[in-house]
Specification:
Length: 211
């Protein structure tokens, strides 16, 4: 339910051409923190790994695959837009289209509130694959696309005077940076939740924390 609401809100509000870079980067970090705190992005699996191994090291080790999977999901969605931005005259159209796509997916998630059952029985050994799949299933990367395109615009990477190759490389770099900052914020928030649940809050908290 909350995934759909957030995606819908992002789609409605992120006509980001007029946002300043500081606000855009704040949006990247805020969405990462939201994904990290959301149990649907996997931090309870890190707690499970720690409890099964009876070691906090196992919990910390599980955060690596979760980060990698989420980062790959972000890149899979954003990188094609990095290539499309090279077509300067279509950038505004792409930005509006990306926002509409976020709105459509947000409405779908708002109407269909069930967590994908196919992703519910993944072993801790497959955390990277699980994190990648669930990030795509929840539309986690879609909310970054309008923000990313706004950052490219604010950085004047679409000035039209640069060579296409330089423009593509610059936008690819921005795509990787946006995905990395987002994933770092996600795992920081998720890792804190996992550690608190493992050391202090216990399993009862996990069973009641889905939102």
């Amino acid at each position: 339910m909350l995934d759909g609401f957030v995606l819908l809100s992002v789609g409605l509000n992120l006509s980001v051409a007029d946002w300043t870079p500081a606000w855009l980067w704040l949006a990247v970090i805020a969405s990462g923190l939201y994904h990290g705190v959301n149990p649907g992005m996997g931090w309870p699996l890190a707690v499970s790994a720690g409890l099964m191994e009876k070691s906090p090291r196992a919990l910390l080790a599980a955060l690596g695959p979760l980060t990698a999977g989420h980062l790959l999901a972000m890149l899979l969605v954003i990188l094609p837009f990095a290539l499309l931005v090279a077509v300067v005259e279509w950038q505004r159209t792409i930005q509006i289209g990306a926002s509409l796509l976020v709105i459509a997916f947000g409405l779908f998630r708002f109407a269909n509130r069930r967590h994908p059952r196919a992703l519910a029985r993944i072993s801790p050994a497959q955390l990277g694959l699980w994190s990648f799949a669930v990030a795509l299933a929840h539309g986690a990367a879609l909310m970054l696309v309008p923000i990313y395109l706004g950052l490219c615009r604010q950085a004047e990477l679409d000035s039209g005077h640069e060579a296409a190759g330089t423009l593509i490389n610059a936008n690819l770099g921005m795509a990787v940076l946006v995905a990395t900052v987002h994933a770092a914020a996600m795992i920081a928030a998720g890792g804190c939740c996992a550690w608190l649940a493992y050391r202090y809050l216990g399993l009862k908290f996990i069973s009641q924390s889905w939102f």
